[in-house]
Amino acid sequence: MAYSKALILYPSRRSALTGTTNEYLQPTGAALSGWQPRPHPQRVVLAGRYCRLEPLAPPTHTKTLWEAWSKAEDGRDWTYMSVGPFAREQQFAEFVASAAASTDPLHFAVIDQQTNCATGTLSLMRIDPANGVAEVGFVAFAPELKRTVQATEAHYLLMKYAFDELGYRRYEWKCDSLNGPSRHAALRLGFRFEGIFRQAAVYKGRTRDTAWFSVIDSEWPLLKAAFEAWLCDENQPQGKQRQSLSSLREKLAADNNGRKIMLSVRPLVKSDYSAWLALWQGYLTFYDTQLSDALNLLTWQRMLSEDEPMYALGAFDEQQKLLGIVHMIYHRGTWSSGDRCYLEDLFTTPQARGQGVGRALIEGVYQHAEAKGASRVYWHTHETNATAQMLYDKLADKPGFIQYRKNLA
């Protein structure tokens, strides 16, 4: 049976393309009747259960912040910051004084509720009240604050302030594209990866490609509910989580009024490149990997070429928004006459997880492979990827083989 890379193969339900047009029948963004510029963030105290945010104020916070940072083994935590590391307390005090005087960025100190000491800072910056947009930045957490419930709550408090109290529409996270820990933190907190701005800045005498992430107001209610479930006493006995933040988001998304996304799965085409690249970069971030633009483009071209054994499918919602991607490669095998289909990459947007997107993509691969006359579909996943394995166990057999690998290039 012949198979075309342009054939739509897996319409799980009929997809409806909806939108707004003007008098020329051109598509336009949805109208925002009554929109007014939002207030500028103020120097307020934001209190939580485990920590509170106070407007950065010298000398009140200078000494405890310096003491917290002095516990670091070296200056690596300042590598991707535009300032630091600081060799002397006076240098640090001058930075704190300058930061405290700024209104954009507007800096806050993170105060531990038990010790009453400042152990880190973060800020709202690039504040745009006219459009209701702000960025969280200058996140500088001392070693004792990192990977704690206080660190997560600090982000929750500032995000809640932006959305619930100020009424902002968009909340951004940007970082050096090479800053793996920062990119992972953004995804863990529920930000959506949007892409890489190449050569976006020069700092500390070097170039920077900037990775962009965001949360928008329509996504905030689910994220807020997940934060609050994660921070509750039942989930934090002795400060140790029972359920992860991402798993709580997925569960809430699945339980969200029982709503099921209307999906269609089809081969990706040339016009899908930008949407594919955003998800592909999110997938690479998950595996702490960065590939060159040239290799990304080559991969895309190969998957669209009729002469290549590589294919890409995408899962789309009712508005034709790309929610997930899967890549596959066909190859010969010694145990059968038919080709085998290797499912190499599978990724869904964090906001769509738990709603059947991964299942639909895998079933789309099965259908694709059957049409190509393949004898087997197979894939790998990391042993720590427990959430994905719960789905995979329902869709395929686990043969028990162990992978060995030697990289040659």
TrEMBL record:
* CDD domains according to UniProt: NAT_SF
Q: Which SUPFAM superfamilies match?
A: Acyl-CoA N-acyltransferases (Nat) (SSF55729)
**Entry protein name:** N-acetyltransferase
Source species, domain of life = Bacteria
| InterPro entries, per database record | Acyl_CoA_acyltransferase (IPR016181), GNAT_dom (IPR000182), Ribosomal_N-acetyltransferase (IPR051908)
Report the residue ranges that make up the N-acetyltransferase domain in this protein. Answer: 63-209, 263-409
Source organism of the structure: Cedecea colo
